[in-house]
Amino acid sequence: MAQALAWMAADPDARLLAGGQTLMPMLAMRLVRPSKLIDIARIPGLDRLEIAADRVELGATLRQVAVERSAALAEAVPLLAKAIRFVGHPPTRRRGTVGGSLANADPAAELALVAVTLGAELLLHDGSAVAAVDFFLAPMTTALPEGAMLTGLRIARQSAPRRGTGFREVAMRAGDYALASAACEVTLDAAGRCASLRLGIGGATPVPTLLPLAALLGTSLTEAKPAIAAALAPLEMMSDGNAGAAYRRRAAQALAEQVLADALAEAMRCN
Amino acid sequence: MQLTLHVNGADHAIDVDDRTSLLDALRDTLGLKGTHAGCEHGVCGTCTVLLNGEPVRSCLMLAAQAEGEVVTTIEGVTPAPGELSVVQDSFVETHGMQCGYCTPGMVLTAHALLRANPAPSRAEIVEAISGNLCRCTGYGQIVEAIELAAQRLARSNTP
Amino acid sequence: MTVQLQPPFRYVGHKRRVREDRRFVAGGGHYAADLVLPGMLHCAPVQSEHPCARIVAIDASAALALPGVHAVLTGAELAAATEPLMNGANTPLVVRYPLAVGQVRYAGEWVAMVVAESRAIAEDARELVRVEYETLPFVLDGEAAMAPGAPLVHPPHGSNVLLDRHFVWGPVAEQFAAAPRKLSYRVRWGRSSTVPLETFAVTARWEPTDAVLDVWASIQMPKFPDQIARSLRLPGNAVRVHYDVDVGGSYGVKRGIKHAVLVGHLARALNRPVRLVEDRLENMTGGDMQGPERVFDVELAFDDSGRVQAMKMRALDNVGAYAGRSPFQLGKPIGAIVGPYAIAAVEYHALAVASNKTPQEAVRGFGQAPTNYALETGIDKVAAVLGLDRLEVRRRNFIRADQFPYLIPSGTTYDSGNYHGLLDKTVAVADLFAERDALRAQGLLAGVGIASCLEPSGGNSSFEPLLNPANRTTTWMESCRIHVDGLGGITAAMHTTTSGQAHETLVSVAVAEVLEIPPERIRVIRPDSLASLPSNSPVGSRMAIMLGGAAVRAAQKLRHQLMQIAAHDLGVPLLHLRYSEGDIHAPDGRKLSWLELVLIAHREYFRLPEGMEPGLSASSIYMVPTGGQLPLDDKVQMYPCHSFEFHYVLLAMDPVLCRPEIRRYIIGHDCGQVISPDVVKGMTLGGIAHGIGAALLEEFSVDAQTGQPTAASFMDYLLPSAHEVPRVEIVHQVTRSPLTVFGQKGSGESGYLGSPAAIAGAVNDALAPRGVRVDQLPMRPALLSDLVAEGTSA
To answer: Most buried among A37, A55, C256, C719, using CB within 10 Å?
Structure first.
């Protein structure tokens, strides 16, 4: 780690290479020309997966496939397990890393959406942490300081007994970057009313965005449509050759409603 | 850059440009032409090889990154010259290919799938091969090949 | 006239392993990019950044100074040393060389070619080539390119219209005047292509002492050696194309003339083997492999029962920057312009228009799939206008089984068919309308799609003289040569490349059927072009018919020679002998075994009939069974055989997300006598998958402001994955062709010719309850969702 940081400090044109699933195509197309590639995949401990009672920590070079295959992680953070299957395809998940996906900050990245939705923290090499909502600044742009290295993701565990999650997205093909995606975690009180709600949108907006839905707390969540629409209204939607902003707004609304319904149904099944 | 790659059960000392991809090292330096280049930007899966038994895209790895890992190419799953593995033979039986260009990647992906999951459902097969594009077959006879291989392997001990 | 072999067959039509598959699963295919020659140099093209610009200057000095760089070839240098590439349309002032000369006409066009010790060095060097451009106005849209004042892609030609042919077959005006009902509509077919997973690859080596150019190329191209020789100003026998290259998919597009001419020139000029293997981005921008991009304006005249009496169709194809063979893709569909329907009169206006887009190349079906989409859309619209069932309207318009052979207005006679039978058989599999209604009840948009269409097969070139009278080519042959060696081994040769169609299996089965010897005992080879008989390559869904026909003919000649030997040796009249599994039996119980016959032919000349040449060898150069007449009165017999396919599809989508999902896909397929069942099945499934891409996903989009391609990689050009292609249920019917050796028809384009139409029909049926329709491909989620949200049509 120290060696990697020293090389980065010595050469501002050096780039970190983790799983390579984004950087390697850019190199092949000669879209980026780093002076040096620093392969961080073998830094000891950087691929850790720690599941504690109150939180989980995913090391930056933890392969996405390890997230997919950990039953303990799926139990601890079920939303992550639902989202990970939408990340690329099996062979890209075999090489792709948690940290690589987060640091790349693609607006459609599922892991970034989960991080924002669950209020996760991104861990830096110096021991500091940045809240996910503050980390993603713009497409492909993060708050990661020059010369810093992302070392992991910390997610607090939700301990409420009546909890449900949902993750959905729409993409041109299965495994493609999402045109729009939505992630949701909800908890219910004993009476079945909403005790907490986190609902995030990805793909449609320049960065994964948590919707302000405090008005729904304490409700049965069956009339969430207007609140979601109101929360989406001020957001800027992206537009590209695959889909315009109007489509993304409608898709975000529809997916948000659907993941909320999924999460609610799951929470109601808990006793 | 001098490297030692462990490919198909043997160590190979090679000397390549730093920028050489694993795909190019396999094809051009080691002469293993069964691994094919399709897009070289990580979408089509034509260049699939097994890394420690699992499918990866060899175009998205530098040769240097494969040092110390176990690499298996299509040449490495063929049991002996002129013979075919059960998976390969199943692809022949169902005609799970046409032009053959994506076939090595598909066969390797099927090998890895069946080792991890000896009785995959159709949906699991589709998911496993979803990162490997085929332009000839529409995938139908490839899925049949993997289903057939699973049945055959269930009755035998050799992959 | 072909004497047809009758079932039951010994090998034809039986499940049998495809012999090519053994080498492919072992990674043993021999693709063009696998070839390594000593001293081989590598190429990287310098591509145009502009859709239209004058080349002011090219400075390659920095590139040439890079160690390992051998040459930077420019268009001016190449043009001085070679003849222009062949021009299909009658447009002598549309001149084309492999590299741009003086002007670039599309973004991605090759401007110069860098040759270096390695591909990596060539790529490094091309970044150092400085090209100074003076940008010019450009035009991207086909209709805009026809408008007065549009920028001219080829100013000397004086117009952007490369082909403008107007046909009237039958009493069109009278039918329209008399018809109680008429409708008109427009459909658009987006620019997509076959996009094989192997890019184009070619290696050439010049042997100065023999004065022969050896070429290994991933091609599927008629008259490929001739075209290279002509462009390089070489005698025809100085170009040796190695057909034993396995081609990693083509489906029409792997033509590669410009690639091969350029590399051939470089190999001679540098006296080193030179290879060019496109990378994917080069392939998609400068590889000249994009397909038709069409606007159809159609009018139908019909009666209250839904019977279509006449059709007027204008097809405007944006063929891109150069002509090539692409305008002919408007011609081939003339051979099935009425589809499976008894439409008596047709007016057809074919327009090929140049634009500043990548040139168009031949795509699976050679223009038939877009035409089928236009026609099927109309049949659906007739049903909608009259409130009739879409299946019933098709039944009412189908040519009946008792009407074959059936002459359509444009001059082609359909060989055979039973369209009603296959429709009924297919819809009997499932009630997709009931399944659709169940999905609708769940709140989904759901629709059933139907398409019935023909696959003209056995390809000839009749569209060439029809569209371009200066071109009188009608000969369109395929060939096979069989040789029995001194030990009795059988070797059959085919004379073209193969790109996944299992031609070696085809030849072995056809020869085996005649010689009654197992296909496994027959070796099939692909000698080089100088050792080959004439061939026209696997285009036009022709090889089952044509190569199969040639193999049978050659085998029959060989069998006849064996019979003559036996008749002489046994002293028994030939007609009294019985051939069985290679042995020949006399009525009196005597026999000559295969090995004895071989012995006589190869070693015991004294036992041969007088005048017979020794050895055992036979060949056939087989002509399309309907011959090759020139057009008369704008009519001509196009392809000889007509396969039929009936698509029956259920599709559903979320009403907001509008991502179409195919829930069930049933296809009825009739290609006559099937030779290799697994091969036909694979072609059909693969064709459907390709059609799913064309209908829903794939498009070579271009930025309207800049003229830059925006789908230049597999990240933007979306090939269907295993997730997007459903399981397909196939319903078989066999209506034999009377014209072919086994009664077979073609299947190389099956599935693709109707799936886009069927899927489009299903999408529109799904949208119908919302009162919107879409008549353009591809139908992508955002397009559909926007229409639903706005309540408009497109």
So the answer is: C256
